[in-house]
Amino acid sequence: xxxxxxxxxxxxxxxxxxxxxxxxxxxxxxxxxxxxxxxxxxxxxxxxxxxxxxxxxxxxxxxxxxxxxxxxxxxxxxxxxxxxxxxxxxxxxxxxxxxxxxxxxxxxxxxxxxxxxxxxxxxxxxxxxxxxxxxxxxxxxxxxxxxxxxxxxxxxxxxxxxxxxxxxxxxxxxxxxxxxxxxxxxxxxxxxxxxxxxxxxxxxxxxxxxxxxxxxxxxxxxxxxxxxxxxxxxxxxxxxxxxxxxxxxxxxxxxxxxxxxxxxxxxxxxxxxxxxxxxxxx
Length: 282
Ligand code: PAF
Prior knowledge:
This protein is an alpha/beta fold. It has two domains: 174 residues, HUPs (Rossmann fold, 3-Layer(aba) Sandwich), CATH 3.40.50; 90 residues, Pantoate-beta-alanine ligase, C-terminal domain (Pantoate--beta-alanine Ligase, Chain: A,domain 2), CATH 3.30.1300. The chain contains ten helices and nine strands. The strands form two sheets. Strands 1-4-3-2-5-6 form a six-stranded parallel beta sheet, with helices on both faces. Strands 7-8-9 form a three-stranded antiparallel beta sheet. Helix 6 packs across helix 7 and helix 9 runs antiparallel to helix 10. It binds pantoate. Pantoate binds next to strand 2 and helix 6.
C-alpha cells in the first residue's frame, strides 16, 4: 500500500492507474476505522468492480460546527494505516488541512435545501462542509466509483444529488450499514459512550425495527410510526431525541405515508453523544 500526502501525487497515481486500464474505487473516511469502513472497501471491490482502491483519511474541519467535536474526534493514523493495508487498500491518501484548504480558499459547494433538514437543523453548516470536501476529494482522486455508507443516508443522498447536478464523472454507491451484535450501527463516535450509555444506544436500531415490523403489518402512517419509535426511545434514561423523520429519498421532504422509496432516519443524543441510524423502505 502506498501512502500519499500531497494532492498532486494522489492525482498522478490515479492517472497512472487509469492509463493502465484500472478501475479505481474510492472510500473517503475521517479515519479511526472500524469494520463499517472496511466493508466499504469490500463493496468497492465487489459491487463497484474496482481493481484498485483508494482510501482517504482526513478529519474535515469545515463539516464540524463551532461547538462540535472536531478537536476531540478520535484519531490514530498508525492503527488506521495497518487496518487499511489489511483491507487491501492500494493507495492511502492522507492530506494536510493546509493543502485541502489553502490560505486563500473561498469556494464552498452546497446542495440547496437538502442540507438544512434532519441533521442539518442542529448542524446547519455540516453538509456544506461535506459536499465541499467530497468535491475536492473526487477532483483529486478521480475515481471511477466512490462508496459511502448507508449509516449517513442523508449525506449519501446529498452527495448523489451533487454528483448528478454537477455532471461529475463518478458513480456513487451506497453500502449497507454494519452493526454490532446487538444492532447498534458502527460509528467512530461509539467510543464516546460509557457502559450504561452503550446499553441505551441500542434503542435507535430497536426503534427502527419497531417501525419496520409495523410496516410489515400494513401500517403506513408516518405519525403512528414515529410515535411508536419515540415511545420506545423515551424509555431509555440517557436518550434524548434530536429528530425522527420519515422522508422521500429523492428530496428529503417529509411524507405523511410510507411510499415507494422512503427513508426513516433518526438522531438521538445518548448522554452527550449524538448517534444516527436509519432504514430505507423500498
Ligand atoms: O462520512 C464521512 O466520514 C465524512 O463525512 C466524509 C464523507 C469522509 C467527508 O469528510
